[in-house]
Design brief:
Blueprint lengths: L1 E9 L6 H19 L3 E9 L6 H11 L3 E6 L5 H10 L5 E4 L11 H10 L4 E6 L7 H17 L8 E8 H9 L7 H7 L4 E6 L13 H15 L2 H31 L6 H33 L7 E4 L5
Parallel strand pairs: 1-2, 1-4, 2-3, 5-7
Antiparallel strand pairs: 3-8, 4-6, 5-6
Helix pairs in contact: 1-4, 9-10
The structure holds uridine-5'-diphosphate (UDP) and magnesium ion.
Length: about 325
């Protein structure tokens, strides 16, 4: 007998969660059981401080179906925290994480399970090959982010990779060992390694409701990701400092020589001011980068919990 854990973070998903449940059950009863009738499931629905009726619906599902577990946070902690809570409370041999809005099609699950069973893979991940239905400007920034990130970081992010994936117990245990507070899942998933098979599919728009990502939110998320997985920005400011020192030293020699040779007529107010502003800018930038890392370190050293549970029907916790 083996157990399939499905982890679903839910934030204001009252419009999607029932449809998600029905879809999953239909895939389970038609294809998964068909493939292997020994596979049981547990659905771990994590309510991330929703302000609508999500929790009520989760409880109703749990009442109706004993394989439904829910964890409800004391406030909104973010998807990363919800994923962590789900993984931590899962006991499956196969563990899947997926969104509640049906953008991650449950009908890929049978294929994913088969790949873990029959091929030598530890993870089956998904990536969307199109970004249809997304504002073009957002796609542009997303693409640029992936390019930049992969250039400056050793951890590789796959463009278009979703969080939707199926993993073995071993992989999940490795992920749980990374107990950092600033959780950038895309990076963590990649950092732990293991053999990954990629399934591709075209983008599917949200079944209902709205995405909770604002542009600013995504921008901050991108910065988080860079901070969490590389210290190259610190190197950049160091290199900038060294370069500018060398250039200004050469310029100093030039000034001294030209004063000796040609005399000193004072001029160049504009250039002086430009140089000062440029240097001021670079200094602020570097202090900012430094401050970001220091800030992250400060938050990490507090060792605050990644999430706080208010209600759950899972006994383990
Ligand atoms: N989500 C969450 N906490 C949040 C924001 C989102 O648990 O603070 C969940 C949300 O309910 C959904 C998944 O994360 O199941 C992905 O969110 P969304 O669909 O808004 O993001 P997108 O698909 O646009 O990347
Ligand atoms: Mg979505």
């Amino acid at each position: 007998m083996s157990l399939l854990s499905i982890i679903v973070p839910c934030y204001n998903e009252e419009e999607s969660i029932i449809a998600f449940y029905d879809e999953f059950i239909s895939v389970y009863t038609s294809s998964i059981i068909d493939y292997n009738s020994e596979i049981k499931y547990e659905l771990i629905l994590v309510n991330d401080g929703s302000k609508d009726n999500t929790l009520k619906l989760l409880k109703e599902l749990a009442f109706k179906d004993e394989n439904v577990k829910y964890i409800s946070f004391s406030r909104n902690f973010g998807k990363e925290s919800a994923l962590y809570a789900g993984l931590k409370n899962s006991s499956g041999d196969y563990i899947a994480v997926m969104d509640a809005d049906l953008q991650d099609p449950p009908n890929l699950l049978p294929k994913m399970i088969i790949a873990l069973d029959r091929e030598d893979y530890d993870i089956v991940a998904t990536r969307r090959v199109s970004r249809e239905g997304e504002p073009p400007i957002r796609s542009f920034f997303a693409r640029t982010f992936y390019k930049l990130f992969n250039r400056i970081s050793k951890v590789e992010l796959v463009d278009g990779a979703r969080d939707y994936r199926l993993m073995t117990r071993q992989v999940v245990d490795a992920i749980l060992d990374l107990s950092e507070y600033n959780r950038f899942s895309k990076g963590i998933f990649s950092w732990v390694g293991f053999n990954t098979k990629w399934l591709e599919y075209a983008n599917i728009e949200r079944a209902s409701g709205e995405t909770s990502w604002s542009f600013w939110g995504l921008f901050k998320y991108a910065i988080e990701g860079v901070m969490a997985f590389t210290t190259v920005p610190l190197v950049i400011s160091t290199v900038l400092g060294i370069l500018i020192s060398i250039i200004s030293f050469l310029y100093l020699i030039y000034i001294v020589l030209s004063t000796i040779l040609f005399g000193n007529d004072v001029q160049g107010w504009a250039s002086t001011v430009s140089i000062m502003i440029l240097l001021g800018g670079i200094q602020l930038f570097s202090i900012g980068v430094l401050g970001q890392y220091l800030g992250k370190t400060y938050i990490e050293t507090k060792h605050r919990p990644i999430y706080i549970t208010k209600e759950t029907n899972i006994e383990k916790e």
